[in-house]
Amino acid sequence: MKVLKTIMGLLLLVSISACRRTIERAEPLKYLNITSDHHTNLLGQTVIEGSISNTATSTTYKDVDVQISYISETDAVIGTEDQIFYVYVPPRKPFAFKIKTDAPAQTATVKLKIVTAKTE
Fold first, then answer.
1. Distance between CA 12 and CA 27 in Å, rounded?
2. 31 sits in which H/E element
3. pLDDT of residue 20
4. How does DSSP classify residue 29?
5. Which residues on adjacent β-strands are paired with residue 63?
6. Is residue 90 packed enough to be buried (19+ CB in 10 Å), middle (13-18) or exposed (0-12)?
7. Measured at the alpha carbon of residue 95, what is the angle toward residues 38 and 56, in degrees to the nearest 5?
C-alpha cells in the first residue's frame, strides 16, 4: 500500500509539472519581466540598461523581442523600435542588457515592453 501511494504521488507530480510546462510554453509574456533605466552619454546617444527575468519554474525562453518606445514630455509616443535579444533566459537567471541608440528629439523617457519570446 505504501509503494502504491508513493507511485501515485510521483505520477501526480509528473502530471502537475507537465501541465505547468505546457502553460509556461504557451504564455511566455506572463513569465518574462523587463526592467530598465536610461541616460544620455557624452556622444548624445541614449543608453538603456536593464534586465529580463524569467519567473517560470521549468521553461527557458529565447529570442526575446523587446519594443522600445520613446515618450515625450506630454506622454506621447514619438517613436518605437524593436530589439531582439538572441539569448537564452532560463528560470531565475536574469539576462542583463545594454543598448545604445539614437532617440528621437524631444524624448523625455523610454519605455520597454516584451512583445514575444520563443521556447526551446
1. 23
2. none
3. 73
4. G
5. none
6. middle
7. 120
For residue 1, count CB atoms less than 10 angstroms from its CB and return exposed for 0-12, middle for 13-18, buried for 19 or more: exposed
* Pairwise CA distance, residues 91 & 120, whole Å: 13
Q: Is 51 left (phi over 0), alpha (psi -120 to 50) or beta?
A: beta
Tell me: the pLDDT tens digits for 97-120?
999 999 999 999 999 999 999 997
Per-residue confidence (pLDDT) for residue 23, from 0 to 100: 83
First to last CA, the chain: 39
Grid cell at residue 25:
510554453
Which three cell numbers, joined as nine digits, stand for 43? 556622444
Average pLDDT, the chain: 89
